Amino acid sequence: MLSVNLKSLPIVENMIEKAEEMNIEVIKLENGATVLDCGVNVMGSIEAGKAFTKICLGGLAHVGVSIAGTVSDEMVLPCVKVKTSHPAIATLGSQKAGWTINIGKFFAMGSGPARALAKIPKATYEEINYEDNADVAILCLEASQLPNEEVAEFVAEKCGVDVSKVYLLVAPTASLVGPIQISGRVIKNGIYKMIEALHFDVNKVKFAAGIAPVAPIVGDDTGMMGAINDMVLYGGRTYYYIESDENDDVEALCKALPSCSSEDYGKPFLETFKAANYDFYKIDKGMFAPAVVVINDMRTGKVMIYGKPNVSVLKKSLGYKELE
């Protein structure tokens, strides 16, 4: 079976080799673990953002950044393009931010290949029938500070590997890398909603592609929380190739999947987040989805589309100003 950790290792090694070129810093901890600072004390770069996103996806996806295919003629932003032939493993088995790391004063949301070794959360790996037995653990952390030896030891223990084989990549929300890797979750958001809210067997999704605008730096980590989510919720477009069976109502799935099906739809995410007292769990799960969904039902040959980009909300979210 494919190993998301071993598939990602060459990407990590390339980042280490090109650290200066990518504007990142490689730090060797005293216990032998390796930390890649992708935006805490360094600038980071677009290339580092692409590599970080590929690693989040377990090395099982193609990732590009481009101006082509932007939101609309009214709004020009760089966009992340993602495609994978292993949607369930790449997104839920690796990219999903399913591991909360809270050690001492260090806090981060963890995603990426190491989750498959620790099986966090276990139910996800049972549902997609996937496991990884690599001897190297690679974890991507969304945090504004760098992890220490204690964090690395914790990850090594949970993953069952030697601490010298632990690689921790760190990028704050308010950095060049942060918004790229978040917009790179556009496919994952749809697949996560399929399994969590709509109870659809995501192993039937055979290929997926998506595109989402990248948020500019409009504030600190809290301020950016709204902008980065809005890029996918109101600007993300996804394409899913599904091998259905006779019991699947794919048309109903397509209508239920986009963010516009949520009761919280229609205003910038930061407003919704504040109203929920900054508690993600008080927000409708159905909101965390792409703006547009296209499904090709390969069994019936039908192609369905539902949803559309919401440029007005994106402009409000970013304070987008057109100069005369």
How would you summarize what this structure contains?
The chain is of the alpha+beta class. The chain has helices at 4-17, 19-22, 46-56, 87-95, 114-118, 122-128, 149-159, 177-183, 186-196, 221-235, 250-256, 269-275, 311-318; strands at 25-28, 34-37, 62-66, 79-84, 99-103, 106-111, 137-142, 166-171, 205-213, 237-242, 292-297, 302-307.
Walk me through this protein's architecture.
This protein is an alpha+beta fold. 36% of the residues lie in helices and 21% in strands. It is built from 13 helices and twelve strands. The protein has helices at 4-17, 19-22, 46-56, 87-95, 114-118, 122-128, 149-159, 177-183, 186-196, 221-235, 250-256, 269-275, 311-318; strands at residues 25-28, 34-37, 62-66, 79-84, 99-103, 106-111, 137-142, 166-171, 205-213, 237-242, 292-297, 302-307. A hairpin with a 4-residue loop joins strand 11 and strand 12. Helix 1 (4-17) runs antiparallel to helix 3 (46-56), helix 3 packs across helix 8 and helix 10 (221-235) packs antiparallel against helix 13 (311-318). The radius of gyration is 19 Å and the shape is globular. The chain starts with a helix and ends in a 6-residue tail after the last helix.
